[in-house]
Amino acid sequence: MSLELTPSSFLRIGQLSNVDLNEDIHELETEVPRQRPNEIPHNEKLLSLKYESLDYDNSENQLFLEEERRINHAAFRTVEIKRWVICAMIGILTGLVACFIDIVVENLAGLKYRVVKDNIDKFTAKGGLSFSLLLWATLNASVVMVGSLIVAFIEPVAAGSGIPQIKCYLNGVKIPHVVRLKTLVIKVCGVILSVVGGLAVGKEGPMIHSGSVIAAGISQGRSTSLKRDFKIFEYFRRDTEKRDFVSAGAAAGVSAAFGAPVGGVLFSLEEGASFWNQFLTWRIFFASMISTFTLNSVLSVYHGNAWDLSSPGLINFGRFDSEKMGYTIQEIPIFIFMGVVGGILGALFNALNYWLTMFRIRYIHRPCLQVVEAMLVAAVTATVGFVMIYCSRDCQPIQGSSVAYPLQLFCADGEYNSMATAFFNTPEKSVVNLFHDPPGSYNPMTLGMFTLMYFFLACWTYGLTVSAGVFIPSLLIGAAWGRLFGISLSYLTRGSIWADPGKYALMGAAAQLGGIVRMTLSLTVIMMEATGNVTYGFPIMLVLMTAKIVGDYFVEGLYDMHIQLQSVPFLHWEAPVTSHSLTAREVMSTPVTCLRRIERVGTVVDILSDTSSNHNGFPVVESNPDTTQVAGLRGLILRSQLIVLLKHKVFVERANRSLVQRRLKLKDFRDAYPRFPPIQSIHVSQDERECMIDLSEFMNPSPYTVPQEASLPRVFKLFRALGLRHLVVVDNRNEVVGMVTRKDLARYRLGKEGLEELSLAQT
C-alpha cells in the first residue's frame, strides 16, 4: 500500500467510520459554562462519543527508558516506600472524612428529629397535627433543596453514590471531573444534606467515591483545582499509577463505611478494579486497615470511649449471639427461598428504577427541574412517614427499649409508636433496630406497610440529583421484610427458638442488597465483618448467590444498568460470545491520521486543530523521500505529547536540520498532566510553522499492533487486558490500515437476539 505525499500534507488512511473524541484533554484551566440541551434524546442502544479513554499502557519512548535505566536499587526502594506512604495517607484522610460526615449527620439529624418530635408531642394534645406535618415536610425539603442545588449547579458528577463512575474510571474511561477536589467537597456536603433531609438514602456508598477522589489527589502530590504543586510524588503522575491508588481509595471508603477492611479489598476487586496484581492487594489492604483504624480511633474518642475502639465503621450492625441464634440444616431451604425473594424484589427495584431514569433523562434534565424533583421527593417522604405514623396504632412499652426519639402520639403513657422508630431515625439506626430489637417489638402489619412504602420511596430516590447511596436503603428494605418473614415463621412454628426474627432480618437485608447490586463475595465478607459473626457466613453466601442468580435472570445489576444508561463505553471482562465472526478490519476506526518521523510543525498544528476528527493517537511512519511512498509503522505518539512539544517549541528550522532540537525531560510531560492545554492556547508563528520536529525521541517505538485478520475476541482480549487506549491495525507489510479504540470494541454487545451493534452519538 502506498500513498502520495506532499510536503504540507498529512496522511489519512481508510474511510471515515468513527473516531475517538477528546474532551478533558482540551479542558481550559478556567471552567467554561456547560451548555444543556432543551431536550435530550435517548436510546439505550447508543454509545456516547463524549467519553474519552485513559491510557493504562506506559509509553516506552526514549525519555521513559532513560529514566527507568537510571533508577538503581535504592531509588526503586524509595519509590516503593512512597507507594506505602501514599496508601497510609489515603487511609487516614478517608477515615477522617468519614468521621466528619458521621458526626455532622448525627448532630444535625438529631436536632431535626428533636424539633419535629417536640412539635408533634405539643400538638397531639392540642390538635392541629397538620402544622407538624408541614414543619416536617418543610424542613426536609429545605435541607434537600440545598443539597440538590450544589450538585445540580456546581458539580453534577457528584450525584448518586459515585460507584458506577468509579467503576468506569478503573475500567479505563475518563469521566470528566470525577476525581476533582471540588467533586469531593460537593460529595461530602451533599451526602450530609441528603441524609439529614430524610431521604431514603445512605451515606456509606458515597464514601467509596470520596475515598477514590482522596486517593487520586494525594497520589499526584498537587492540586490542579487549587493550583498548588507540592513537588512530591511526581513519579506517579500518569494514568497507570493513579488507577492503582484510586483502587486503594475505593477499598478504604468501603472499609470506613462498614468497618470491613477485608470486605473493602474484595469490593475493589469484585466491583471496581479492572486490573489487579498481588502487590496491589497488599497495598490496598494496608489502606483499608488504616482507614478503619483512623475512623475507629476518632469516633471512639468522640463518643467518650477512647481506649475501647468501639466504632469500627460508619455503621455497626451489632453482634449476633451465635449460641442463641444458630441455624440448622432444615433452615437451608428457607435461606434459599429468601434469596429467591431478594432476587425478584431486587430485579423489580432495578426495572422500576430503569424506567424512572429513562423518564428523567428525557424530561427532567434541566438543573432547576432536578432540584424541584428532589424537594418533591423529600416532602413526599416526610408526608408518607407522618401518615403511616399517624395511622399506626402499634404501641410498645418504652421500658427496656433503646429508641432514641420515642414518639408517644396516641399511645398510652409509658408507650411509644413503633412505626415512628423507622422514620425518626437515620436509616442506619433503623437497620440495627430491626436486627436486634427483641421479638414482639414490631407489629407484622407495621412491617408490611413500611416495607412496601420504603421500597417505592428508595426506588424513586435513587437517581435524584443528590449525593446518596443505595446500600443502606436496600439493607433496610430487606431487614424489614426479613423480620416480617421471621415473625411469620415464629408464628407458624409456635415460637420455636430457631425462628428468631432478628436472624431473618439479617438474611433479608443481605438478600435485598444482593438482589439489587449483585455483589456476592465482597458483600458476604462485609456483612460478616460488620456483624462480627462468622457463624452466618454460609447462610449469607447462600442467600447472596441465590439472589444474584435469580436477579440476573431478569435484569442487570443496578450499577451496570446505570453505566449502560449513561452510554459509557465500558469494557467487560470478555468479548461477546458470538463475536468470533468479526475481524479487526470490520471493527477498526478509519481514516487514521499518520505523522512522519520528522514532520513539519505546521502540519502537526493543522492536525491537532482539525475538529472534524479530533484524534488522540497518531501512528508515526517513515516516508521515503525518493519515491514519496509510506514505509511501515515506526511508532505511536499521543496528542498530549504533541501539545507539550509545541508548547516548549521543540523544533528546528527547516534549513538547519543538523541542529539539535531542545531536549525535554519526562518531568515536562508530568507537569502538564492531567490537564493538558488545548491547541488553541498555543501560539505558533508563521515562521515556526515551517520548522521541523523530530518525533523519534518522544514516540512509543513499540506500540501494540494486530493484523487486520485478527478476530474480535482476540483484539478485545489484548486491548482489555493491557488497558490500551489505541491498538494499531496493520497489514502484512506492517503498513497502517486502521486503529482500534475503546468505542470500537464497546459498541458490540450480546443482545436478546444475538450480537448487536450500538450506534455512536455525541449525547
From TrEMBL:
<keyword id="KW-0813">Transport</keyword>
<dbReference type="InterPro" id="IPR001807">
    <property type="entry name" value="ClC"/>
</dbReference>
<dbReference type="Pfam" id="PF00654">
    <property type="entry name" value="Voltage_CLC"/>
</dbReference>
<feature type="transmembrane region" description="Helical">
    <location>
        <begin position="280"/>
        <end position="302"/>
    </location>
</feature>
<dbReference type="GO" id="GO:0005765">
    <property type="term" value="C:lysosomal membrane"/>
</dbReference>
<feature type="domain" description="CBS">
    <location>
        <begin position="699"/>
        <end position="757"/>
    </location>
</feature>
<feature type="transmembrane region" description="Helical">
    <location>
        <begin position="245"/>
        <end position="268"/>
    </location>
</feature>
<feature type="transmembrane region" description="Helical">
    <location>
        <begin position="470"/>
        <end position="492"/>
    </location>
</feature>
<comment type="similarity">
    <text>Belongs to the chloride channel (TC 2.A.49) family.</text>
</comment>
<dbReference type="InterPro" id="IPR002249">
    <property type="entry name" value="CIC-7"/>
</dbReference>
<dbReference type="GO" id="GO:0005254">
    <property type="term" value="F:chloride channel activity"/>
</dbReference>
<feature type="transmembrane region" description="Helical">
    <location>
        <begin position="445"/>
        <end position="464"/>
    </location>
</feature>
<dbReference type="InterPro" id="IPR051280">
    <property type="entry name" value="Cl-channel/antiporter"/>
</dbReference>
<keyword id="KW-0472">Membrane</keyword>
<keyword id="KW-0677">Repeat</keyword>
<keyword id="KW-0406">Ion transport</keyword>
<keyword id="KW-1133">Transmembrane helix</keyword>
<feature type="transmembrane region" description="Helical">
    <location>
        <begin position="534"/>
        <end position="555"/>
    </location>
</feature>
<feature type="transmembrane region" description="Helical">
    <location>
        <begin position="504"/>
        <end position="528"/>
    </location>
</feature>
<feature type="transmembrane region" description="Helical">
    <location>
        <begin position="332"/>
        <end position="356"/>
    </location>
</feature>
<keyword id="KW-0812">Transmembrane</keyword>
<keyword id="KW-0868">Chloride</keyword>
<feature type="transmembrane region" description="Helical">
    <location>
        <begin position="133"/>
        <end position="154"/>
    </location>
</feature>
<dbReference type="InterPro" id="IPR000644">
    <property type="entry name" value="CBS_dom"/>
</dbReference>
<dbReference type="GO" id="GO:0062158">
    <property type="term" value="F:chloride:proton antiporter activity"/>
</dbReference>
<dbReference type="Pfam" id="PF00571">
    <property type="entry name" value="CBS"/>
</dbReference>
<protein>
    <recommendedName>
        <fullName>Chloride channel protein</fullName>
    </recommendedName>
</protein>
<feature type="transmembrane region" description="Helical">
    <location>
        <begin position="84"/>
        <end position="105"/>
    </location>
</feature>
<dbReference type="InterPro" id="IPR014743">
    <property type="entry name" value="Cl-channel_core"/>
</dbReference>
<dbReference type="InterPro" id="IPR046342">
    <property type="entry name" value="CBS_dom_sf"/>
</dbReference>
<keyword id="KW-0129">CBS domain</keyword>
<feature type="transmembrane region" description="Helical">
    <location>
        <begin position="184"/>
        <end position="202"/>
    </location>
</feature>
